[in-house]
Amino acid sequence: MTVPGDLHERLWENAPACRAELPDGSPVWLVTRYADVRALLADPRLSVDKANGDGSWRGFALPPALDANLLNTDPPHHTRIRRLVSQAFTPRRTESLRPVIQHTADTLLDRIAGDDEADLVRDYAGPLPVAIISDLLGFPGADRDDFRLWTDTMLLPPAGDRAAAAAAIGAIHSYLRRLIAAKRADPADDLLSALIAARDSGDRLGEDELTSLAFLLLLAGYENTVHAIGTGVLTMLRHPGLPLDVEELLRYESPATVLLRRFPTEDVDVSGVVVPRGQTVLLVVGAANRDPDAFAEPGEVRPGRVGGHLSFGHGIHYCVAAPLARIELEIAVGTVLRRFPALRLAVPPGELRWRPSFRARGLASLPVLLR
């Protein structure tokens, strides 16, 4: 939901919680103020479990084995799964990927180094996160193009083709089940093998929990990172000479415009507006990160800015892969700017194509001149 800045201003000033309708007809409440969004992200009365909704939310139609992930469960089930995940998603494992990320970035840029023009979404921002999350989880290299195609079709099916989206979801589900079986039979030094082996007092992840968790890590490790790299490069090109500040890039252009839908388990007061139990709440972090009450001159890029953005969320659902995303964004944006000091847009900014999505803020393409 890419909302114009002037509408953000009207919502901040007059509507702490506002009724709206999504393109699929789902009725929702939008919350846009930074203080409200941050508070609600940590409010235990807002559930992520669809069973607590009134049934009006539609969203993805996922099979149960992909739906039982961290983003759809509340404590204590969420607490248990996250504790097991944290054993495998360690800082050491994440930091060890830094040379892999750098090598992948350099390899992708080597392929376009002799060209005069490139599309940095197609040639760089897209394939880089697929390669990294695949390395992390232990995907065979030959399967990565298939995964990217399935994911793109699921997130943005051609002409809204629900059958194509369902087929892509089915393909991902089948692939993950086969891969988990292979890793269980022959473990390797990768995150998926570590998740299979993770235990806590004899407890371990079940089959559906493993499958849905792998699905979540793939989806989160791909979509938001593609958008963050693309908009990060664009922001730096439009503000030449500024030092690279990953946190400010994430605040200025939030890759996820809204965070996961939530359902109040009781009526909730949002700065004087009562949101009824069971109705769908969307926390618009793209607006919250530009709230002038939280950030001075929020429409400016200010490296070193004080204050925490909400692009990774807040509270118990804070993104478990945030450290990896920061490293990827730092290396991806910094490397392309260093390798191509004359890099500039090949079209006027107003002619850039953006992905049509209410959930995300991402470029469909980023045509650039390399020299």
TrEMBL record:
CDD domains: CYP107-like. Belongs to the cytochrome P450 family. The keyword Iron applies. PROSITE patterns: CYTOCHROME_P450. It holds the Pfam family p450. One of its GO terms (molecular function) is monooxygenase activity. The keyword Oxidoreductase applies. It comes from the Bacteria. GO terms for biological process: antibiotic biosynthetic process. This is Cytochrome P450.
